[in-house]
Amino acid sequence: MKIAILPGDGIGPEVTREAVAVLECLALPGLTLFEGDVGGIAYKRHGHPLPDETLDMARAADAILFGAVGDPTCDALERHLRPEQAILGLRKHLGLFANLRPARVFAGLEHLSPLRADIAASLDMLIVRELTGDVYFGAKGRRVSETGEHEGWDSMSYCDSEVRRIAHVAFRAAAAGGHLLTSVDKANVLETSQLWRDVVIEVAADYPAVELDHMYVDNAAMQVVSHPDRFGVVLTGNLFGDILSDLASAAVGSIGLLPSASLGERETAFGTFGLYEPIHGSAPDIAGQGKANPMATILSAAMMLRHSFGRDAEAGRIENAVSAALADGVLGGDLGGSHGTAAIGEAVRARL
Ligand code: NAD
Ligand code: IPM
Ligand code: MN
Questions:
Q1: What is the pLDDT of residues 94-114, one digit of tens each?
Q2: Best mutation site among 6, 15, 87 for ligand 2 pocket (most ligand atoms within 8 Å of CB)
Q3: 62, 186, 207, 334: the active-site residue
Q4: Per-residue b/e over 187-204, b at no fewer than 16 CB within 10 Å?
């Protein structure tokens, strides 16, 4: 069971270290870890945010644990050399089109949410975000118009096969769980979204037990914080899913709590090949201070055990250890507490 560890920039290495320590604490036989450079650190060491050797290591692994990339000192680089290209490149090269971002308020932890406790208690959603298409990967550029205006442009598009395969992922999740699926789009304005909606309706015919609902993204953003009980599985595109998942994390309590799994179609001897990462970034404002909450990355490691290694029991143990630590008041600065990164990691391991 080979895991590529890609810590990246900023708080990436700090939070990844704690998640790796959690995996080591479980002492699973046959686990081998390899570490590679990605992001700004890779650019500085190798001249590229996603060096060939890192991509090769990722391809050879059964799963990837990813920290975060992003470095303000790289913001003036040409776009293809910026740290963020590392995660976009991994997703695209490895065919990881399905991003699962579960957001839920654990029972007894409603007080961590800024929402009223009775509203927070009902927050339990799985955001299924398409990850390798949309305006992220369309043509883009700069041009000077006839009137001499400087213009930046990005093209948004989806083709039906891209929508169909992510829709199946979401419908399967809804069929296995609460049977409620909300597809979020902007079909009242965008043609990309109208095609999205048409294809989702077509796919729905295969899942008669799932209740399908469509919602415009602006309304969805509002409902996530006012009526989270209206959501079970949320199916959406790359850009809307990015924004809605940060919003959902804030409704849970902190972006430092939300894990993710990015999956494709490749199966290994142990499970589905995937990349696992917290939904947050490199947090340059707190990097190097030992303040970052590693729980999102620790929970991402749990998702890895479940999806890539069929180790549901160990995944559950990690999740229980995290919620027990939170219930015992082990809170990072992001949750109004004073526990640092290492102390949180230690507290989770003590409860495993
Ligand atoms: P961010 O998620 O890095 O930080 C947003 C805010 O949340 C900051 O105030 C930060 O301190 C806080 N925060 C984030 N994670 C935290 C944690 N684990 N514990 C405590 N507080 C936490 O978003 P940003 O500031 O917009 O972006 C910073 C850099 O990260 C940018 O370069 C961006 O492109 C990159 N980024 C990368 C990824 C990724 O690697 N997948 C994801 C998001 C952003
Ligand atoms: C995320 C991040 C990335 C995204 C960036 C860093 C490219 O925000 O993983 O949520 O937009 O997908
Ligand atoms: Mn994001």
A1: 999 999 999 999 889 999 999
A2: 87
A3: 186
A4: beebebbebbbebbeebb
